[in-house]
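Sample entry (320 residues):
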Amino acid sequence: MGVYHFLLLSIVLEGIAIGGLIYANSALSAGFFFTIHQVIVSMILLSFDVFLEAVTNNEGHTGKLRSVYLTLANATLVVSPALVGLLLVGNNYGPIYTVSALLIIPLLLLVIGTLRDVKVNPPEHVQVLESLRGMWKHSNIRWVTGAHLVLQVFYAWMVIYTPIYLHDHIGFDWNVIGVLFTIMLLPFILFEIPVGKLADDRFGEKEFMIFGFIVMALSLFLFPLVTYPSFAIWASILFLTRVGASIVEITSESYFFKQVAGNDSDWISIFRGTRSVGYIVGPLCASASIVLFSFPMMFPALACICLTGIVCAKKLIDTR
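Predicted structure, serialized as tokens:
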């Protein structure tokens, strides 16, 4: 099909999936369309990755380009909760999905207007195992993908269990948690562009990545130490977790895409697949930690997992 037509088809299918969620009247139908949505979003993001890599002519600018791309994407994570709050009336979630479906139209028009003539080398068609073997032979790609997988386990763990912990164990109301999460996500807007630029121009990604994992781990060790609902303290701790995560995110993305080309869509898809693997591994590890320890101690357990990311980062040959 080519990446362009594949992206158009994916966007149309995403619109259909969201439309299905609007009219879903059972758990089975909602689950079906939600699954389609989750799969298609991954396909859309993969296509954008291939396009962005195709237009990156100077690998020395990868960090800058990726940081702008990620900052714009992450800005929506900060804005979306506020929009949901305006659109949500009682338990009527229909308007939220309606607006989401309508946003598909400008996305489709934007892709048609800007990406139609972008030259993308056709990817080689290879088997999954062959792609995994190829990645394993390239140590830099292997280790940066491992670091990115640790980050995705962190995301899955935190997204699922942090709101439960703050509500059930610390005692915050849900409206306060919404504000805390908005503050928590600000580092993705504040730090990724300057870190991406510094990684390109002066320092490389390796040292930043190690520093990011250290900040993530240290902030997670603070979770069981604070047992009362202090807004300022918890906003600071949550903010710190994402300071580290934002640094790891931009440096792992920048480093990986400096190692691949636009036609390496098989390796790019495996790199993006770490998100799905993270959402499988993360809850499994979290459940085991709750059984072995306690709910508060699951966050230090996650900190220990984050420290393994330092091992991956130290194996990299820096780009500067």
